[in-house]
Design goal:
The protein is mainly alpha-helical and 280 residues long. It is 72% helix and 2% strand. It has a two-stranded antiparallel sheet. Helix 3 crosses helix 5. The model has no long low-confidence stretch (mean pLDDT 83).
């Protein structure tokens, strides 16, 4: 039995290693960074965030404070047996991840879902892919991309399901493995978060489940790359609300590149690195 478990663990580690290499090669991790610059340089995109800023930040601060007060020390004590001197750091990262997950679930379900959809659609309009957006909402006349957004005609994004939370809890024990376990945990979380960021794009494309799965599988490494970068940004306490919006902007920029056919064999814009370097 022990040999079988070891064999499975080694196989999973090798699979994640290969996926990580391909993900880094794809360069999709740059889209969340590009999203930060694009968001900050386009004031019209601030409107959805501004309307939700106070209640969402209050929720984020409250969740993070609660988790550190009541769960940090117990997790340090447990990790001391497996992580030794790294227990404090590993437990801190774990608490941030737990807080981020709770915040994401609660905020995106109850507070900012519509605002994220508006941001995603607004970016697509600003990138001259209005025809795509018009299939999911009414488009009005005007020069401001956000002002053009009319009433939604399709329900946005997928609502929260217990499956995501169950999968998250299943992956938690990985954090008891020093360093490597935490890295694997973040990668697995990123593998899920990447495709989730494009749920609105899939909806606007009117793809069925089979078409979505094929697209995700064909671009698995790129979606993992994007997801890992997005997950790491949203681990930042309080600022995670800002990064939730900038990650949405990055996902929309990527969708616009896909829609225009401006992607390489890795699923990203071939000149993406140059574009990001120009913004630095």
């Amino acid at each position: 039995m022990a040999d079988k478990v070891k064999e499975v663990a080694i196989g999973e580690a090798e699979r994640i290693k290969t996926l990580t290499t391909d993900a880094a090669r794809s360069g999709a991790y740059l889209y969340p960074l590009r999203g930060i610059y694009y968001f900050l340089s386009h004031r019209s995109l601030w409107k959805p965030l501004a309307s939700k800023l106070v209640p969402t930040m209050s929720l984020g601060v409250g969740i993070t404070a609660f988790m550190f007060v009541f769960t940090y020390l117990p997790q340090v004590a447990i990790m001391a047996f497996t992580n030794g001197p790294l227990a404090a750091i590993s437990a801190g990262l774990l608490v941030l991840s737990e807080s981020s997950t709770l915040f994401t679930i609660l905020s995106k379900t109850f507070l900012i879902e519509d605002a994220l959809v508006d941001t995603f659609d607004g970016v697509l309009v600003s990138k001259n892919t209005t025809d795509l957006v018009s299939g999911g909402r009414q488009i009005k006349a005007g020069g401001d991309p956000m002002a053009k957004l009319g009433k939604l005609v399709k329900t946005p994004f997928a609502k929260f399901t217990p499956t995501a939370l169950i999968r998250y809890v299943m992956y938690l024990p990985l954090n008891f493995i020093p360093v490597v376990g935490t890295v694997m945990f973040v990668i697995l979380q990123g593998r899920r978060a990447g495709p989730t960021a494009h749920q609105r794009y899939f909806q606007l494309k009117e793809w069925n489940s089979a078409q979505r799965q094929k697209h995700i599988e064909d671009n698995k490494a790129a979606y993992t790359s994007f997801g890992v970068a997005a997950v790491l940004l949203e681990l930042v306490p309080v600022a995670s609300i800002l990064f939730a919006f900038t990650n949405t902007v990055g996902a929309a920029l990527w969708a616009a590149d896909m829609e225009k056919g401006n992607v390489s064999e890795h699923g990203t814009a071939p000149n993406l690195r140059e574009q990001v370097q120009k913004t630095e």
